[in-house]
Amino acid sequence: MKEDRSNKYMNPYLAGFLIGLMMIAAYYFSGEGLGGSGAFKKVAIATVNTVAPGYAHEAAYFAPSVENGKSPLNSWLVFEVIGVIMGALLSAAYFGRLSMKVGKSPKITNRTRLIAALAGGILWGVGSQLGRGCTSGLIMSGMAVNALSGYIGLAAVFGGGYLFAYFFRKLWI
Amino acid sequence: MRTTDKIVIIGLLLGSVWLFFAGKNAGDKREIPPKKLHELMLQKHRDISADELTRRIINGDPMLQIVDVRNEKQYNSYTLPGAINIPLEDIMKTDNLAYFDQDVLNTVIFSNGTSDAQIAWNILTRLGYKNLTILRGGLNNWFETIILAKPPTGPYDKESDDLYQFRNGARVYFGVGASSETESAPKPKVRIPIIKRKKKEVEGGCS
Amino acid sequence: MGPLYPQGLISEPLNLLIALFIGIGFGIGLEAGGFTNTRKLAGVFYGYDFVVLKVFFTAAMTAAIGLFLLDSYGLMDIELTFYPKTFWIPTTIAGIVMGLGFIVGGFCPGTSVCAAVTGKIDGIYFVTGAFLGIFGYAFTYEPLFETLRNSGGLGKVNIASELGISDEMFIFIVTVIAVIAFIVTDRIQKKVNSKNPVENIEELGL
Hints:
The complex is a heterotrimer of chains A (about 170), B (about 210) and C (about 210). Chain A is mainly α and about 170 residues long. Chain A has two domains: about 1-100, no CATH class; about 100-175, no CATH class. Chain A contains eight helices and no strands. Chain A has helices spanning about 10-30, 35-50, 55-60, 65, 75-95, 110-130, 135-145, 150-165. With about 210 residues, chain B is of the alpha/beta class. Chain B contains eight helices and five strands; from the N terminus they run ααβαβαβαβαβαα. In chain B, strand 4, helix 6 (about 115-125) and strand 5 (about 130-135) form a beta-alpha-beta unit. Chain C has about 210 residues and is mainly α. Chain C has one domain. Chain C has nine helices and two strands; from the N terminus they run H-H-H-E-H-H-H-H-E-H-H. Chain C has helices at about 10-35, 40-45, 50-70, 90-105, 110-115, 120-140, 140-150, 160, 165-195, and strands at about 85, 155. In chain C, strands 1-2 form a two-stranded antiparallel ribbon. Chain C is globular. Chains in contact: A-B, A-C, B-C. The interface between A and B is medium-sized, with 23 and 11 residues.
């Protein structure tokens, strides 16, 4: 009988070490920091550019990414995130975690969780654009080069989290 | 805590200690942010008077490094004793920057007036180099004050008189009315320049 | 000597291929570490699972130590890499917004993508929300956000220089703090879970 590994996880320190190595490689080969939200941005811009290229070339948010005529999807970050998807699939397949489900605390309903997930996503959508990155791009990559922005991000994101944690505890515990 | 955990943690600690012993120097130089630069520019002791510089030269201050940022012709025609010549246009050359890339010597920068010396000070301070001052009033003022020192007028005042005596003595030390003589300057210290990196903008990141 | 692509030492297609492979490594690290499980992610804020702290700081410090070692040995020039500019006002505000997003949504963009593709429906909703947020932001950018986003610019600031210490001293201090945090939070986690464990704790692999 096949072993159920679905609740087994890689040692967090090893996982962190692996990710750290990936960050070093990213800087060494490409001069870039690992990112997440940047790819979202490129996809959004590419979508708008396909549907309404005139607007995309005019509006301040979109213009810089489309001006040189290259597709915004033709970028390092997008390829990286495609890789992330592949890696996640590989790992999930190995551990037997490929399944449709709603991850949540048993104390709340699916509906609550999904609405919260949507809301959380919207917050990150706005926040990551305003803050020029998400946990990987802004904070982790920033910390890797001793950038002040990374540490400000670290304090703000985790500080913010702890600030609001109590009020939303019912979602988790 | 499991063994693997301990191995990674010890690895991190050792790695971070290793940094101190790694390869070339400590402390990558980064540009000073504008606010810090502004603060430094407003500080009082970033310039030095002709008298003070003269005192240090005569006392043979071992920590003193004098840099003449005028062109080669002017330098060869007349310069301060012990001064090395780094023309302003050449100041960003790797070999030349090496003279400033140190924390030990006190560097005095001068030109005929103050604007060129100030330009040099600005750019070097911005690059993070330390212990830099400029000669107040430049070489012109130095010449006026020291070489062409005038006796004090008015009622006797010990301080003014002492100053005049000092300047007289200095003039003798430097040789009288030196505009056509070249000073036999002690050889400037030779330093192995550290190769510094070029800066280039790189696009990227999550922004 | 690195970085290779910014100096034209490797071609663009190769660079993108490398991006793909690095991404794969990143994705494996995230999923295997448990970051598709939203309860594990939120655990750092409630004390029952500090996996986020462990992975995060280990990754950041491994990268920092590695990069600065490469730099010190002349194998790499950090100054040629993408060095982020600091905009303290929008970053602080955005950070707090993202912190709230973390508590409410239980993901960040990178982990939500991992979750979404491995079948977690909440991940899919999160990704959708993220796009909504981005489009909303994009279409209201000029009137609402542009000034804010460009405020508080300090340029490329290095935190070690700001504090007046060397890069390696700073990294060393952060590493020590991180290790202390690892030990302390381990104890906190044990205590929280012995007294009042969360439901279905076996799902968290604890």
